[in-house]
Specification:
This protein is of the alpha/beta class and 381 residues long. The protein is built from ten helices and 16 strands. Strands 9-8-7-10-11-15-12 form a seven-stranded mixed sheet, sandwiched between helices. A four-stranded antiparallel sheet has the order 2-1-6-5. The chain has a three-stranded antiparallel sheet with strand order 13-14-16, with no helix packed on it.
Length: 381
């Protein structure tokens, strides 16, 4: 295992310096400019996300739309393509971006990311450790929350996933934030090297076996700091909760899950949607006790002590529970997609998709080939 070179912020600075009048960093508001991302909603509600470049075009079976017709228009404008079809042009929100970006690993869905930021109390200026970067979705939310005065230390075991995450973050921000570092390696080995004991405010663990990292996390956290684990199954939830209790270093863990159900509202037809985003994962949080502090006894109903074995971990892998796993070939394709999108956003040059005849980047769940996730269910009222 090796760490990403510390010169990475310098590389981001040089990329930013290379952005000129023909390719500027994406802007969060105001008229569309060169380098901005535009989410175009066309006939039948299909969405396309493009990075605006002079002279480029969006080609679909419904006609051609020139990027130049969007540059300079205010956000929320409606434009017409060569075939007379109208497109609504909006800057994609972070919620839209994470659902459409190239994925190496499964993402943390926005509903869970919002709860992670809230339950872990991620605040501006915080020093946050994130283990299990995946495709960078949660990293984007955390970077926004810590702000320019904070720091996000991310750790990822697989170099390919780290590469996809870096590219996606670069695409959204137009550069690699100086407040962010990505280390490729095992958290247990790398965290003590990256953060001295008692210097971390918050830790977010998104991994298969978070209990393996609890002790090193306890050393890194400040007294009162929060550890939050994101796990997929009830058995994982039970094991990490019991391990946290057994250390005697944390408050009583609190577990929850989040389900989101939309509503159809049109005239007198007001009812829940037929589909909802249900279970995607569990969140469990606990706070670090002061050194030497002993948690007061709390009366609980007696429960049978669980037993766990190493074979349980194998039963919780994505393939074992029926999730589709990404092939090496497909992963390399995602890396190329993410890197190309980052080059568009940072103005780093290179052949664009429009030049190759591919006028849009993936913008809907499933376009990138990633699993849409386990949490979408039909609801019949």
């Amino acid at each position: 295992m090796s760490t990403v070179p510390e010169s990475q912020p310098t590389r981001a600075t040089s990329d930013q310096a290379s952005i000129d009048a023909t390719a500027t960093a994406p802007q969060p508001s105001g008229p569309f400019r060169v380098g901005d991302r535009a989410q175009l909603t066309g006939p039948k509600g299909k969405m396309h996300t493009v990075t605006l470049m002079p002279g480029k075009e969006l080609h679909t079976h419904n006609g051609v739309l020139a990027h130049d017709s969007l540059i300079g228009l205010p956000d929320g404008s409606v434009v017409t393509n060569s075939a007379g079809h109208e497109y609504l042009a909006l800057r994609p929100l972070l919620n839209d971006f994470v659902m459409s970006m190239p994925r190496g690993a499964a993402i943390v869905y926005p509903k869970d990311a919002a709860q992670i930021v809230a339950q872990a109390d991620i605040f501006p200026g915080a020093v946050v450790v994130e283990a299990g970067v995946g495709s960078g979705a949660l990293s984007l939310w955390l970077l926004r929350a810590v702000g320019p005065a904070g720091r996000l230390l991310s750790f990822e075991r697989r170099d390919e996933f780290a590469e996809v995450a870096e590219a996606n973050v670069s695409t959204f921000f137009g550069r690699v934030p100086e407040t962010w570092s990505v280390t490729v390696g095992d958290l247990v080995d790398q965290l003590p090297l990256a953060a001295p004991a008692g210097t971390v405010d918050r830790v977010v663990l998104d991994m298969l076996a978070p209990w393996e990292c609890i002790e090193v996390v306890a050393d890194a956290l400040k007294p009162g700091g929060v550890v939050l684990c994101y796990v997929a199954t009830a058995t994982q939830l039970s094991r990490v909760a019991e391990f946290i209790r057994s250390t005697g270093l944390f408050t009583e863990p609190i577990a929850s899950e989040t389900m989101v159900r939309g509503w159809h509202v049109q005239g007198l037809a007001v009812r829940p949607d037929h589909r909802m985003v249900a279970h995607t994962g569990f969140l469990i949080t606990a706070r670090r006790l002061a050194p030497g502090a002993v948690l007061p006894d709390v009366k609980r109903r007696k429960a049978k002590a669980p037993t766990y074995g190493d074979e349980d971990v194998e039963a919780w892998t994505p393939g074992a529970v029926g999730d589709r796993t990404i092939s090496d070939k497909n992963l390399r394709k995602r890396v190329r997609e993410a890197t190309q999108a980052a080059s568009w956003a940072t103005g780093d040059g290179g052949e664009t998709g429009q030049q190759r005849g591919v006028g849009d980047e993936p913008s809907q769940i499933g376009d990138s080939g990633a699993d849409a996730g386990p949490g979408t269910v039909d609801v019949i009222d």
